[in-house]
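Hello,

Our lab assistant flagged a job as stuck in the queue for most of the afternoon. It eventually completed. Since we weren't sure the result was trustworthy after the delay, we are filing this so someone can double-check. Below is the sequence as submitted and the structure that was eventually returned. Let us know if re-running is recommended.
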Amino acid sequence: MAEQELNKKLAEWAGFTWHEQRELVDGPLMHGQWYEDGHWDYHGECWYEGGSGEKTHFWQDRLPDFPHDLNACFRWIIPLVSGWDMGSTHDGRTAATVWDHKKAKIRRGFDKEAAMALCKAFEELRKEG
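-- returned structure --
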């Protein structure tokens, strides 16, 4: 599966939603602006980035980069599973394990990048329903 497709699926699993239609976006930072090309939101809230003096802006077409950003995985994906573990294989890859006690499922992912290994394990768990 392509990284971009995997990232989108994981984002949707984490609670991000794509809104295709033109819509009025309300919120403390949007001032009732219209967005023509669709946008992502997170659990019904517009998806913003910013803080620490940075200009806060609306992410119209970008999501957290789960396959390359371990912090994004820990912020949005790890809370959705019952537990996780990471280690190294004999060939230097990262071995990530995630589990869901409710579904009695444990899934593993392997990759040279830790974030991608976690993403692969999450995707396997997500495929199970």
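-- support follow-up --
The delay was a queue issue, not a problem with the job. The result is valid. Residues 49-58 have pLDDT under 50 and may be disordered. Residues 16 and 42 are 4 Å apart (CA to CA).
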